[in-house]
Fold this protein.
Amino acid sequence: MNRTDLVSEIAKQAEITQTQASAALGAAIEAISAAVAAGDKVTLPGFGTFESRERSARTGRNPQTGAEIKIPASKGPAFKAGSAFKERVAKG
């Protein structure tokens, strides 16, 4: 499913226009992105939690040469699925 399919499904289920659904989806994505970028945790009960996680610095290997390289510490987004979402996916 891509963004267009998702917007169509939201519009159908919420009984709104596709333009309104697209605006709502865009606003939700922007709000979640901004909150996580600011270091906040966004929890949607039954769906999951979006948060920012720290990755510590470590030593890796260049796969072509085998030489050791230093990988700097970084921050990245993470998602943890909620139990209801996990159960629904497991059931198919």
